[in-house]
Give the backbone structure.
Amino acid sequence: MAPPTGSVSGAPVGASASGASAVSAPLRLVLIGASGRMGQQIVRTLPAFPSVRLTGAVASARSSALGRDVGTLAGVGELGIALHSELPSLLVNADLALDFSHAEAAANILAACVAARVPLLIGTTGLGSELEPALTAASRDIALLAAPNTSLGVTLLLELVQHAARALPQSYDIEIIESHHRGKRDAPSGTALALAEVAAESRGGYLSQQACFARPRSGSGREAGQIGFAVVRGGDLIGEHQVLFLGEGERLQLAHSATDRAVFARGALSAAQWLARQPPGRYVMRDYLFSNSKL
């Protein structure tokens, strides 16, 4: 793997430590899940990131898009990069891997990136808890960031929910409403679960003990301490999340709406560039968002 580009001893990208102008080689990116909605959006967004160069594109072995040019598939014209199903050979000369494929492929993708010592950003949702040991082990060898949502706005929303859950009395009920397009597989969304986990942990609890994914038609009402979920699936909704803190006589609503899938692509590519400069370890979007912040 080539050494990552970025700041060295405080010198900005494109400048040497002595101040002389230099041209940094672009980061070589392998995109996994390139034939999907987010994969194609990443390809369309890449021109806005001249410091990143796509060098490989991966799709499922079952994909009908295999062999097609990834740029043609994304509607940006031929890029000279055909979709392949074999990841390891593409990682040989890569600086970074970005995964927006399927949760069931995550373990194999992790293993391939560890073997090649290539930093990996996973934007795939629906990762199960059974993958945690593999994620932890991989982070000892590579820089690894797994995010159910790469929007910077959602990253900040997580922070706001954390503060609200800590500050408000536990008598305030928490409900989460999320809406996505009809084709989304996981429900509740990974983002909704992440928001709920932050709220539960901020109150000293565990989501596994507090989550309420469905309520019976007739019952005894809401149990104290529950974190409830409501899921909407339909049309072409990109993604909407609301966290409600419901008290006596007042309601606090924290919400985020995505109207363009490009926000996730921009967030992923920005965080990926940052990740390529980090030492091995486990990172989250918050680490990137606040890396240059005074907050």
Notes: The CA atoms of residues 210 and 223 lie 9 Å apart.
